[in-house]
Amino acid sequence: MEGATATMPRLAVLGAGHVGPVVARLAIRAGYPVAIAASGDPGNLALITEILIPGAEPQWAVDAVAGADMVVLAMPLHRFLRVDPRLLAGRLVIDAMNYWPASDGVLEAFENGRAGSSQIVARRLEGSAVVKALNHIGYHELEQNARPAGSPDRRATGVAGDDPVAVAAVAEFVDGIGYDPVRLPSLAAGQVLQPGGPVFGRVLLRPEFDLAIGTGPAAAGAPVLADAQSGKGE
Amino acid sequence: MTDQAAEKRTSAPESVRFPLVFGLDTFGDRNGDADGKPVSHAQTIRNVVAEGVRAEQVGIDFFGIGEHHTDYFPMPAGDVVLAAIAAGTNRIHLGSAVTVLSSDDPVRVFQRYSTLNAISGGRAEVILGRGSSIESFPLFGYDLADYEELFEEKAALFAELLKGEPVTWHGTTRPPLYHQDVVPHTESGPFPVWIGVGGNPQSVIRAARLGFRLALAIIGGQPARFAAFSQLFQKALEKFGRPPLPVAVHSPGHIARTDDQAREEFWPRWRDIISVVASDRGFAIPTEESFAWEAGPHGALYVGSPETVAQKIAANLRALQATRFDLKYGMPGLTHEALMTNIELYGQEVIPRVRELLAPAPPGPPSSGSS
Fold it and tell me: Which residue in A52, A144, A231 is closest to B221 by CB distance?
C-alpha cells in the first residue's frame, strides 16, 4: 500500500474530530495526498496534524476542497447543516456521517420521510456526487481492522451511491485503505449501512456481509431502523 | 495538594513524573439484589456512600461519581453523595466523573465543588465532559446540536471561576457577570480540574488551552491508540506556555477472585447496558466474541482477576504515558456485595501490584497517592 505518486486522487477530509483524523491517517498510509480542514483556521490543526496525522496538510475548508478529487464529510451531521452546499459543488463527496438524534439533537431535515441520511445529504448537495461509505465502522476500529487486499480476515464495507463512476472511485479508495468494498446500487440502498441496520458496527467478512444485507437492500433498510429506534431509552 | 509542587514550571517537561494515582468511578449503577431484582434508587445511592468510604479504607486515592439521569444510573446529584463520603473519610480525593458542564451552570458547578472542597478539607476535584450522559440535555432544555458551543464557552468560564478572583464575563449561554465574587472561596487555590476526552483531538487541545488536566475515557478498542493523544496534550501545553500536567485513563471493568468469575458477573450486565445505549450512541451490540476481545490483553475492558487487571493497567499506563488510572466499576444489576469485593481487590491487590510493576528501579513508589 506504500508508495504515493502524484497520480493518486487527492483527498480532502472535512472534520478533525473522532473520524476525520483516522480516515486521513489511513489514506496517507495508502499513499493518498490528504488535506484536512475543520470549521476554522487551519493553524488550529497544526499540532493535531503534526502529531496525529503526519503528512496531512491542514487547510481552510475552501482550499482543501478546491484541490481535492474526493471530499470526505467526517463531521457531526448537525455541523454539516451549516456547510454551504456551494463549497462542495461539482465534487465527489464521501458521506461518512450518521444521524443519531440522541447525539446530534433532533434534526428536522433528517426526521421526516423514508429517505436515508445520505439521500438527504445528497439533496442538499445537488451539484455533488454523493457516495455513502465508511459510516458503519466505528472510528475506534477503523485502523485496527484495516487489512491489505487478499487478507483472509479482511472486513467488508458498503459503498452506496447513484453515480456508478463515483461509486467505483470510492470503492477503489476503500479498497486502498484496507477494506473489501461492497457496492450497493443506489444511495437509497445505502440505508442498510445506517445505525441500527444489519451491518452497523459489526465486523463482517464479505460472505457474512452479503448475508446480513440479504438479497435486496430495499428489504433491509426501514424495518431494521424502526426496530432500533423503538429499542432506545429506558 | 502535594502534586502542586511537582507541577511548577520546569524547563525539562519530559523529566516530570507525576505521582501514580488510582481511582474508582461509578455512575451510580443501580444495584441488583441476590435474585437479580433491581434495588431502589435510594438504596443504590446509600450503597455508593458505603463504597466510597470503603474505597478509602482499602487505599484507593480517588472516588468519582459520573452524572446520569436514568433509571439504571440514578445519579444526577453526585456532589451531594460525595459530600456524604467526605464526612466519612479523611484522605481520599472526591470528584465528578464527569460533570456534564454543557447542561449545567458553571457558577453552580464551581459553588458545589468548592463547597465539597471545604467539607472535605481540600479533596475535591472535577472532571468536565459529556461522557455518555446525553439525557441531561432535554431534561434541562438544552439542544444537543449546541453541545460544542455550550461546552467551549462554559469550560472557559469555569477556568475563570477557578482562579478565585472576582469574575467579569459575558457570553451567550448564561447571563453576564460583572466583577462577581463567587463563593465559597477555596483555601489553597484552584482544585484539580480535568477534561474527559473520548477520542476527539480538538478536545485535547482545548484541555491544554484552558490548563485543565486530561482524562482519556477509553471504553472500546485498543487503548494504545490514545498514546498520541497524551503526546498531543503535552505538546499543546508547551505551545500554550503551560507546565506539564498529568494524564489519566478512565475505563470500565470488574475485578473478582478469578478471571472466570469476573467475566461471568460482568458480561451479561455489560451486554444489557450497551444494548440499551447502542441505538442512541451508534455502538454495535456486543457479542461474546467482541467482549472476549475487549476483556483480553488488547481491549479496553479491565475484567478479571487482580493479577490480570493489574498487568493490563500497568501496560496501558506505560503505553499512554499516563500516571492515573480510574476504574469505572459496577454495572447495573451487579450486587453491592460484588462491588465491595471488586473495591477491596482493587485497593488491596491490584493497586499495590501495579505500583510494583511500574516502580522505577532506584527509588520506591510514592507512599501515598494524591492527585
Answer: A144
Which residue out of B222, B280, B291 would a mutagenesis test of the A interface target, given it has the greatest number of A Cβ atoms within 10 Å? B280
Average pLDDT of every residue of chain B: 91
Contacts of A197 (CB under 8 A, 6+ apart): A136, A191, A220, A221, A224, A225, A228
To the nearest 10 degrees (0 to 180), the angle between helices A20-29 and A164-177 is 80
Distance CA B332, CA B335 (A): 9
Cis-peptide into B184, omega within 30 deg: yes
Q: Is a pLDDT exceeding 60 seen at residue A4?
A: no
Higher pLDDT, B178 or A103: B178
- Best mutation target among B134, B146, B202 (most A Cβ atoms within 10 Å) is B202
B270 CB contacts (<8 Å, ≥6 apart)?
A: B252, B286, B291, B301, B331
In single-letter form, the type of residue at position A60 comes to: W
Cβ contact A232–B134 (<8 Å): no
The whole-number pLDDT of residue B253 equals 98
Residue B134 and residue A103: Cβ atoms within 8 Å? yes
Q: Is B5 exposed, middle or buried (0-12, 13-18, 19+ CB in 10 A)?
A: exposed
pTM, to two decimals: 0.89
| Closest to A117 measured CA to CA, from A4, A225, A1, A6 | A225
**CA–CA gap between residue B351 and residue B353 (Å, rounded):** 5
CB B72 within 8 A of CB B30: yes
Chain B nearest C-alpha distance from A59 (Å): 16
Asked if A189 and A201 count as a contact pair (C-beta separation under 8 A), the reply is no
Facing A18 at nearest CB: one of B147, B199, B290? B199
Amino acid at A189: A
Q: How far apart are CA B28 and CA B79, in angstroms?
A: 12
Mean pLDDT calculated for residue range B341-354: 98
Q: Are B212 and B195 in contact (CB under 8 A)?
A: yes
* Interatomic CA distance for residues B269 and A27, integer angstroms: 38
Q: Are B248 and B214 in contact (CB under 8 A)?
A: yes
Q: Note whether A204 and A212 are within 8 A (CB).
A: yes
CA B100/CA B132 separation, integer angstroms: 9
ipTM field: 0.84
Q: Give the residues across from B197 on adjacent strands.
A: B216
